[in-house]
Amino acid sequence: MKLTSSASTNGLPTADPYLPGHGDPSWGARHYDLDLSYDLTRNQLRGQAVIEGEVLEATRRIVVDLSRLDVSKVLLDGRTPAKYVVRGNRLVVTARTELGAGTTFTLTVKYAGTPKPLVEKHHGDAGWEELEDGVIVAGQPHGAPTWFPCNDRPDDKATYRIELAAPHGYTVVANGLLTRRSRGAGATTWIYEQREPMATYLATVQVGRYEIRELDADIPLLAAVPAEPGEGFEAAFGRNPEMLRFFARLFGDYPFPVYTVVITDDDLEIPLESQSLSTFGRNFMTDDWDSVRLVAHELSHQWFGNSVTLRWWKDIWLHEGFACYCEWLWSEESGGESADDWARHHHERLADLDQELVLADPGPELMFDDRVYKRGALTLHALRLTVGDEAFFALVRSWVDEHSGGTVTTSDFVAHAVRETGADLADLFVAWLDKPALPDLPD
Question: Do 30 and 114 sit in the same domain of this protein?
Fold first, then answer.
């Protein structure tokens, strides 16, 4: 039985207060199998998603995030559920009987429509977006439901199989390993598998007229580049293998079997983070520090954000503070200014700005404020200056090792730092994380 409603999301669950109307904490996804086809000419997406899930709290209702795509069929464990209803950007599926905690299920959703970015109050637009000649998917933080039904909360990580049929002449890049490519009568089908757990906002597909290049690195390191990229590609991305080796030396082995950079033929305002790949616009193909630092920034997110992922959006500094600090570390490693020079430079700049931001809970309107990035990096530098290089890099490496594939909180990191160093760090973390006033850096 299919019902439709124009009701708001009132009465439906919100998993994270920073992202109202997303996520259902009563169940968790274990695997997404996405079978998609895309018509670039008409911007039409057709798909079938098979979600393997587990009930975490007894319920009869499974709420799924899906934005402005038409649902034509829903099956729960192969059968038609008691009912399903589309309410705004949510699909509400009601089971015939209560599902007890620990119950596993398979939810199949068939859908189609014109995918468009989803606009949220504090975060602007994100999701499936047409380029001049292709597609880009920017998931962070709320864009996943624009192209597949999901439990859109960062603490719910699952494995993925992503199959997409696109017109001949276009290359499809998605998360994980390309396991098969086959040419049919009207389209080429690309199949990717992301076997390491991944949050929904990190899932992506990129479609364009790309040439795939393989860089000489310790793991498969690929670049999807537009026609005639010129010398700019080498200037911006030529040291990516060296960056990868440097970060692996500091933080442990690269956490995924492949890393891909996609360079769109269009200019982009900012690069895009996704698991096992990053996306840049053609405008980033320069040797300017502002481009090179972002190449380092996005690569470092594979450890800090993709492998080790925040449990709550308020803890975004655990992603962006680390990635920003990795820019400074790469600068020093590559012969530029030292991390300490960058820290003192940005500390001076932050001191002249408003001091109302609390790093451990900045609020949804400020979670992507540049002060979160810079103050997060400064917090790490203050910790490093306090405990010394050997202890600092040891605790960061063990942090990644212990939490790879999982989700974390700020309190987890504080406890880890104290445990690993044996130092009294209470005053340091309270000052940097919990109070708005900018502390002085240790000498």
Answer: yes
pLDDT surpasses 80 at 112: yes
Find the mean pLDDT for residues 250-263: 98
Which two structure tokens, joined as six digits, stand for 257?
A: 């079997």
Does residue 20 have a cis peptide bond before it, meaning omega lies within 30 degrees of 0?
no
Cα separation, 148 vs 131, in Å, equals 19
Which stretch of DSSP H or E encloses residue 418?
A: helix 410-421
Measured over all CA atoms, what is the biggest interatomic distance in the chain, rounded to whole angstroms? Answer: 68
pLDDT score, position 6 = 30
Q: How far apart are CA 396 and CA 416, in angstroms?
A: 9
**Lookup result for tokens 């979160």:** 372
When pLDDT is averaged across residues 401-428 and rounded to a whole number, the result is: 98
Cβ-contact 163, 179 below 8 angstroms: no
Q: Which domain holds residue 139?
A: 1-203
C-alpha span between 248 and 254 (Å, rounded): 6
Looking at the structure, do residues 315 and 383 belong to the same domain, yes or no?
yes
pLDDT of 53 strictly over 50: yes
Classify 424 as helix, strand or coil. coil
Q: DSSP class of residue 441?
A: P
**Position 192, amino acid:** Y
User: Can you give the pTM of this predicted structure?
Assistant: 0.96
